[in-house]
Amino acid sequence: MPALDPAILAALRGALALLLLRAALHKLRDRDGFRAALAGYELLPAAAEPAAALLLPAFECAAALLLVAPATARIGARLAATLLSVYTAAIAAALRRGRSDVACGCGGPAGELALSGGLLGRNAVLLVVAALCSAPLRARAPGWIDLLTIVGGAAVLTGLHAAAEHLLATAPGRARLRARA
Q1: What is the DSSP string of 129-166?
Q2: Which of 2, 15, 74, 130 is geometrically suited to a Cys-Cys bond with 81, CB 3.0 to 4.6 A?
Q3: Which helix (DSSP H) or strand (DSSP E) does residue 80 occupy?
Q4: What is the largest CA-CA distance in the chain?
Q5: How many helices (H) and strands (E) does the chain have?
Q6: What are the residue ranges spanned by the domains of the chain?
Q7: Comparing C-alpha atoms, which of 116, 129, 102, 119 is closest to residue 19?
Q8: How many C-beta atoms lie closer than 10 Å to residue 158's C-beta?
């Protein structure tokens, strides 16, 4: 993987860390709802669901914290990629079994989303971001403009993620409107 500019890499890591932290806080605030989402996937034994409902947000918090520290960012990126891979595999398995009525449990800006191919696409993009977050840094002296690049880049990426989540959340309603037209 080619070395990335430090400001771009920091913006990617910051945006991914924000996404993971927000997702973890959502899961911890609504533990019963997240446990119900896990049960809806029908992938874990019922006895394992309470532990998974605590461990998954803990791993998300850990990945977020590791991503923001330069010394541990690669470990955080790998943990984020692992989590995203597990989530993507769970969504794909549930969809294969016709379980599209299940809430994803991700708690994005648009709220709970039903499982869909769109979520698989979203996770594929997030997996690419996680892979880029483990790229080596290109050596260069930092400048004052880097702070604007990092904050602005992370804000734009976070906004793009929120917009994508809203599009996924409104897709069923848009499809019903098209069917009526």
Answers
A1: HHHHHTSPBPP----THHHHHHHHHHHHHHHHHHHHHH
A2: 130
A3: helix 73-96
A4: 58
A5: 6, 0
A6: 6-180
A7: 129
A8: 18
Token pair 């904050």: residue? 151
Asked if 107 and 45 count as a contact pair (C-beta separation under 8 A), the reply is no
Is residue 137 pLDDT above 70, yes or no?
Answer: yes
Residues 6+ apart with CB under 8 A from 76: 13, 17, 62, 63, 64, 65, 66, 67, 68, 69, 133
User: Token digits for 96?
Assistant: 């294969």
Q: How far apart, in whole angstroms, are the C-alpha atoms of residue 167 and residue 156?
A: 16
Residue the block writes with tokens 């880029």: 132
Q: What is the pLDDT of residues 111-120, one digit of tens each?
A: 678 888 999 9
Instruction: State residue 123's pLDDT score.
Output: 94
Q: Which two tokens stand for residue 51?
A: 């532990």
Q: What is the DSSP letter of 110?
A: T
Q: Which amino acid is at 43?
A: L
> Is residue 60 helix, strand or coil?
helix
| Residue-wise pLDDT tens digits, 21-49 | 999 999 999 888 899 999 999 999 999 99
d(CA 173, CA 178): 9
| CA 149 to chain CA mean position, Å | 22
pLDDT, residue 142, reads 81
Tokens of 40: 């809806």
